[in-house]
Structure formats: C-alpha cells, structure tokens
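Protocol step 4 of 5: obtain the predicted structure for the target chain.
Materials: sequence only (see below). No template structures provided, no constraints applied. The aim of this step is simply to have a reference model before the mutagenesis design in step 5. Sequence pasted as it appears in the construct record:
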Amino acid sequence: MKKTFFITLSCLFFALMSLNANAQSAPKKSIDLKSSKVESTRGANPNIIQARGNTDEIAPASRGSGQYTCWVYFHNYTSYTIDIYVDGYYEGTLAAYSDAYVATGNGYTTVYGISIGQTSEWVFNGADCDGSSHYNFYD
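Step 4 output (structure tokens):
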C-alpha cells in the first residue's frame, strides 16, 4: 500500500514539474506604450472597427483566431480608465492602475487604447504573438 502511494505521488510530482517547465518556455514580449493626445477634429477614429457596445445585443464575431491562442496582457500604469481594442475590436475596459488579459489569435496586428474621456490614446502597430505579449500603458 505504501509503495503504491509513493509511486503515485512520485509520478504526480514529475508530471507537475514537466508542466511548469513547458509553461516557462513560451517567449514573452513586453512593449511600452506612451500616450498621445487625441485630436478633437479628426472625425471617425480609424483605429476602431467595432466600438464598445451600449446595448445587451450580442456583438458579431471579430475574425478568426489564428493557428493557436495568444495571451495578450495589459498593464495600466496611468490614472486613466482605458478602452482596449485589438485589431479594431473592443476587448474590454482597463481601470486605472490595473491589469487585464485577453486571449486572441496569433494573427492580431494592432493594439489600441483610448481613455474613456477620449483625451489620450495609445497605439501599437505591427503586433504579433509567439506565446504572450505584455503591453504597458504609460502617460
């Protein structure tokens, strides 16, 4: 009985250790974004394809997810509350001094944030993901 318990416990230990080693092997990118002022007379925002909804209707799907799932992490180091868009589609609102993440396909190309008062914005083009990416929002 003790021998079976010890073997089972040992197998579980080695299985958990291998999962931890695989989780650490995915590359992680960290991108710092600086804010810029939003021009008040520019008309429609070219960075937003589908804005944040204001009804309870189900939003249409954005686009395909790509070959695998990519985790995109957002870190807000500002006093602004920021609406987050990936490839022009609303993904969520990030409170001041908070963190959030979304799962997207590996084929995403742009990250856009705009303060809810629409006075500051953060833009990143040319994004790609091979594991996970971290976007840091600064003033």
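Step 4 remarks: The CA atoms of residues 71 and 132 lie 5 Å apart. The two ends are 62 Å apart (CA to CA).
Proceed to step 5.
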